[in-house]
Specification:
heterodimer, A: about 70 residues, mainly beta, Ubiquitin-like (UB roll), globular, B: about 300 residues, alpha/beta, TIM Barrel, five-stranded parallel beta sheet, 10 helices, 10 strands
Chain lengths: ~70, ~300
């Protein structure tokens, strides 16, 4: 198990703890319209399946919501 | 209304819609259609598994393209990362750059804003910065390579309209990129005023989304932006203190002026005169340099 902070909450991910697994765990099953930052660095979609996250890393999974003055 | 160009792209509508504040996606989509806007801002936030309906799909169905913003960012670093995340999520390198200084006013932080703009331009973004109504900052942002400058009329969501029309005029006068009034619009006349002052477009959300009838207000804003633009192009008449007769003086009949001689007469010569320079400085248009049409009309009047 890898324990990461996923969208502000502690979360256990099964090995291999890839970005793709984190996106699924965050509740974005198809990953469309979603972007991910690990410790503040953007991980391009093409690298989700191969990028592993380690213990204690901060993962942010974002999408577009209503907003703007 | 003529199209305008921003970052090499022709836009038919001069109204850009912010999507914040709508009760639900259905009202937003209806208002978006009624506004005629082609671009709609969206914010980037954490995925919420319980959220229903895809904002981006709803906007695209209504014929609008998304323009991600960096709302909620307080530092250049956060804003740059947010823009990169938006590019990755939405496949656009356009960004409405917002870096705010505090929660209470939501006013831009000029120092952080400029740093973020420089970084994002260097990274290939088309940067549309939400900025203070400061002509010098606007120039610095333009020099940094921003594709437009978007000065506020007044604080976000305040509905106070254009607080400093003189600064707005200075920004418009010097800008070589489109100027979009962003934030503060409360009602249709504010949007019309911005266009009359020379803005290329208006970006607004709350004025529509928080109106009692958002769809009706969206229609009103569309007309206001068009009316303001067309009025500006048409060339307004100069302001005058005194009336100017619009019917000919010549050919007036000689008619009895009154039934009895009891009423006192008053001639305009009896009235106190006032220097036009004493006029209250209400509207910037008053101090505007004359337009080509006004100069022509002046020449015709003076018979030269």
């Amino acid at each position: 198990m890898t324990v990461v902070t996923l969208n502000g909450e502690p979360r256990e991910l099964h090995e291999p703890a890839t970005v793709e697994a984190a996106v699924l765990a965050a509740g974005a099953p198809d990953g469309r319209g979603v972007a991910v930052a690990v410790d503040g660095e953007v991980v391009p979609r093409g690298e989700w399946a191969t990028t592993e996250i380690s213990d204690g890393q901060q993962v942010e999974v974002l999408h577009a919501v209503q907003g703007g003055s | 209304m003529a199209a305008f160009e921003m970052a090499g792209r022709a836009l038919e509508s001069r109204l850009i819609l912010g999507t914040g504040g709508f009760r639900n996606l259905r009202v937003m989509a209806e208002a978006a259609r009624a506004s005629g806007a082609e671009l709609a801002t969206v914010a980037m936030r954490r995925v919420d598994p319980s959220a229903r309906g895809s904002l981006v799909e709803v906007l695209e169905e209504a014929g609008l393209e998304v323009l991600p913003n960096t709302a909620g960012c307080f530092t250049a670093r956060e804003a740059v990362t947010t823009a990169r995340l938006a590019r990755e999520a939405l496949g656009t390198d356009w960004v409405k750059l917002e870096v705010i200084g505090d929660d209470r006013t939501l006013l831009p932080d000029p120092a952080e804003l400029l740093v973020a703009a420089e970084e994002l331009v260097a990274d290939g973004f088309t940067v549309l910065p939400y900025t203070n109504d400061d002509p010098i900052l606007a120039r610095r942002l333009e020099d940094a390579g921003c594709a437009a400058v978007m000065p506020l009329g007044s604080p976000i969501g305040s509905g106070m309209g254009i607080n400093n029309p003189y600064n707005l005029r200075l920004i418009v006068e010097q800008a070589r990129v489109p100027v979009i009034l962003d934030a503060g619009v409360g009602t249709a006349s504010d949007a019309a005023l911005a266009m009359e002052a020379g803005c290329d477009g208006v970006l607004l959300a709350s004025a529509i989304s928080r109106a009692a009838d958002p769809v009706a207000m969206a229609r009103a804003m569309r007309k206001a932006v068009e009316a303001g633009y067309e009025a500006r192009e048409a060339g307004r008449i100069p302001r005058r203190l005194y009336a100017r007769a619009s019917s000919p003086e010549e050919g007036r009949a000689e008619l009895p002026t009154r039934d009895s001689a009891e009423l006192p007469t008053r001639d305009s010569a009896d009235l106190p005169t006032r220097d036009p320079a004493d006029l209250p400085a209400g509207d910037p248009a008053e101090h505007a340099p004359p337009t080509a049409l006004e100069r022509e009309a002046e020449r015709a009047r003076s018979g030269s």
